[in-house]
Amino acid sequence: MEIRNAALVLFAERGYAATTMADIGEAVVMRGPSLYKHVGSKQELLTQIMTGTMDDLLRNHRAAVAGCEDVVERLRRAAEAHVRYHARHRLEAFVGTREIRSPEEPHRAEVLQRRAAMPVRAVLAVAPLASALDGPRAHALLEVPLDEGAPHERRGPRRQRISRWSWSG
User: Fold this and answer.
1) What is the rounded average pLDDT for all residues in the chain?
2) Do 86 and 146 contact (CB within 8 A), yes or no?
């Protein structure tokens, strides 16, 4: 867990490509090559972070909408759970959004499979919301990539930082 957390912080600060296993090792006071006794690769670390984040989001979504039949209330609960997760897990959301193109096969397929089942897309796809709206409006809602909305802003040509925001409640 300590290695994963160090990688998460470094990926958020420097980006995946600019972070080396030696950097991660230094952060956990371990030589870079020694990390391979605990982790298969930097790709594996990124995949664990991204799929773990997506699994947590899906679990939170399911808990939020459990037992609720009203489509508007389901959508409200799903959106609230999504926003709360991103507010509480800013680094995971940031890395998951910014590094979506970084995984290589076979990790890429695993990440993209999980991404396709993201909570906000899931609630919109299964909710009878589409029948309550006209065709073009329903289609537009189904295409909204709300799962890609982790807060971030650019500073300089290639540097990003996490926006400071909080959720009360």
Assistant:
1) 76
2) no
Query: Residue type at 1?
Result: M
Q: How far is CA 7 from CA 50, 86, 95, 149, in A?
A: 12, 18, 10, 22
- The gap between the terminal CA atoms of the chain, to the nearest Å, is 28
Q: Can you say how many angstroms the Cα of residue 145 is from the centroid of all Cα atoms in its chain?
A: 12
From the list 28, 115, 122, 3, the residue with the least C-alpha distance to 74 is 122
What is the rounded distance in angstroms from the CA atom of residue 17 to the CA atom of residue 14? 8
**What's the pTM value of the predicted model, to 2 decimals?**
0.68
pLDDT category of residue 83 using cuts at 50, 70 and 90: confident
Query: How far is residue 58 from each of residues 34, 64, 155, measured CA to CA in Å?
Result: 34, 10, 31
Contact (CB, 8 A) for 42 and 19: yes
* Higher local confidence (pLDDT), 96 or 115: 96
Q: What amino acid occupies position 16?
A: Y
Name residues whose C-beta falls within 8 Å of residue 91's C-beta, 6 or more positions apart in sequence.
Answer: 8, 9, 12, 162
